[in-house]
Write a structure and sequence with these properties.
Layout (H helix, E strand, L loop, with lengths): L1 H17 L10 H20 L1 H11 L6 E5 L5 H6 L5 E6 L2 H13 L6 E5 L12 E7 L7 H11 E10 L3 H14 L2 H18 L15 H10 L4
Parallel strand pairs: 1-2, 1-4, 2-3, 4-5
Helix pairs in contact: 1-2, 7-8
Amino acid sequence: GTFTALEKIEKKIIDFLYRGGGDVLDPSSEKSAAFAAAVQYSLGRYQIGLERYVRLFEKIGFMGGKLGLDIGSGAGHWCLAYLTHNERVTGIDVRPEYVQLSTRLVELAGRSESCEFLEAKAEALPLKDATIDFAWAHSVLMFTDAETALSEVSRVLRYHGAFYCGYTVLGGRLAAIHKAIASGDEGNLKFQLNIVLSAYLYNSGIYATPVSKVRMLDLESLLMICRAYGLG
């Protein structure tokens, strides 16, 4: 059945990732470190299993589409799950190591003809107007200029197209901080604290770093932006 086929794909990909992901990037130290981190993240996504993502698409009705768009495609797991009930998908990510790795993983899955990955920003989608049936952004919108990104989503969606957004608000981050403290996970604690502090600095008009501007909109503010661009 469908999920037996997915399990075979997962096994092939997980085996590949356990071996370090192959020689995908140039072996410079900076790129190698970024690629190693991408491999570890990707391994965790595929160990969760593609069935979880397929079920979510089924639940929200993302089925029977011609072209989908994954904003912040990362390991490509959402894209592979989408192809279970849809024809084609494009994934965009700002990080080249993820674009290159996910392209290789889709090749392993035998779905290259139906899936492409591009290095691009949510604020400047490299797609024509009204070409996308379904678009989604899971846990990435807070790292973008949300107004510009959502205006771009609205531009590329077909009439009656649909958009799914998974967005982590302050409560979720505080829960993750509490869990990290309780478990003694210093790495995750540092990561979560950095996001929360960066968000508050951004909202105060102060950027944590020149290249990383994190926002943390409340639900009503996010919905208001969506409605402004016809997404609500």
